[in-house]
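User: Assemble these into one structure.

Assistant: Restating your components, then the assembled model:
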Amino acid sequence: MTAAVEFIDVSCRIGNQPILRNLNLSVAPGETLVLLGRSGSGKTTALKLINALLFPSEGEVRVNGAATVSQDPIRLRRQVGYVIQDVGLFPHFTIGRNVGLVPELQGWAPGRIRERVKELLETVGLPESEFSHRYPRQLSGGQRQRVGIARALAADPAILLLDEPFGALDPVTRIELQDHFLALRSLTPKTTVFVTHDVQEALRLGTKIGLLNEGRLELLTTPKGFLSQKGGVAAQFLACLSTGEVR
Amino acid sequence: MSPALVQDLITLTIEHIFLVVISVFIAALIAIPAGILLSRRQPLRRWLLGLTNIVQTIPSLALFGFLIPIPWIGGIGKRTAILALVLYALLPIVRGTLTGILGIDRAVRESAVAMGMTPKQLLWMVEMPLAVPVILSGIRVATVTSVGTATIAAAIGGGGLGVFIFRGIASVDSTLLLAGAVPAAFIALVSDGGLGWIERRLSPAY
């Protein structure tokens, strides 16, 4: 089976600044890879290489078997759902139009879009009748982030990219949305790359964890494997876990 | 005021409004696309904004004077007056367009691109609707300034309420002077209020 996403000897410089060095990894279809790392470790850059917002300086990123440089970026991006921490909902569109935007760009019939929007809003726990006509500003942070996820899922993309989607939320809402994410995943499995600096989140959501440090992939393992790490950056992250939790 | 004066006043007021409306309209046709272009070309931005800034600093009476000897576009009359007014109106509208587009939340722009919008869709579905209020405020500033500057158009035969003002200065007739200045101020106030109202109407209901 071909990997859904594959990095082959990828290096990426922005200006003269090397951001990623010799990255090799692959994500199997349906898998959730969590890229864990500190700020500035290159996580977001790695994510942007997947939906052609950035291109590698060296090496190749393959999505569904083909190099991103050889694909039409517009088509590629419409097949990849993308959620960022600041959500980036369009303030001048209603929630309904926000969620239905990618289908709209792809030219779906209005009736079909409405149905899809309704279905998606219900899935993320926002009743359509109550939320569809509202504007993003009228929603709370957690609600906006749900809308962001619904929007990313709208055209049923094969791949989902999430960049610290729950980073700005209060801890209770964060756990709630993590649960939602897990429920969604069991409903419709999607290849997911999830960026976070929260080790607890990584352990909860990942089927695999990739640890990035200063642009290098230090470790690629299962959550279980990650927990058994004794040294290095992984141990630093695990230390946060035991101080962060009341036992 | 004699009936003849009233008749003149009406004609000149209409002429004045015509000068302003046509100039701001032409300026908007040039300045909005220029502002969009500048939002995409950073090196060009400083260069062109500097140029429009310089135009803005030329004293208006001098600019009207400079334009007279230029062949084709210069000379005496309305055309030259309109050209000068267009030059003055460019900067506020370019700036408004640029500020409006550059002021859009980075996350909004990034997710628009990441969702697979083409550059055209990004412009028409996201950037323009969000920038419209700021562009309009640039147009408002341009309009109000033009109403004032247009009084000088009379100096080169452009007509408008300046005719009364210059005639009033020449004949030391303050009634005539006021007959030019008061309606001009009134037009400025009304256009400011009117455009401000439209701006608010088009501003986010969200």
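The mean pLDDT of chain B is 89.
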